[in-house]
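Example 3.2
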Amino acid sequence: MENIRHSSSIAKSRLKYMLLNDRVACTAETLSMIRKDIYRTLSNYMDIDENIELVFEQGDTPASSYLNARIHIKEIIR
């Protein structure tokens, strides 16, 4: 029974992610350009890893969406 609950929560999470991506309508190409722009901008101020993880998330209301970025910072440039 525990497996069914776990599987259903994973399926629900995936569905929410798919619906959010559809609503935001961000193509893979656009996401790649955003990733490159973030890298170029932050590289002026810190040494960061090129592999930036971007994830769309639903906010508290259906109208609010967030783009979270996971960026490995190696060193701050002083």
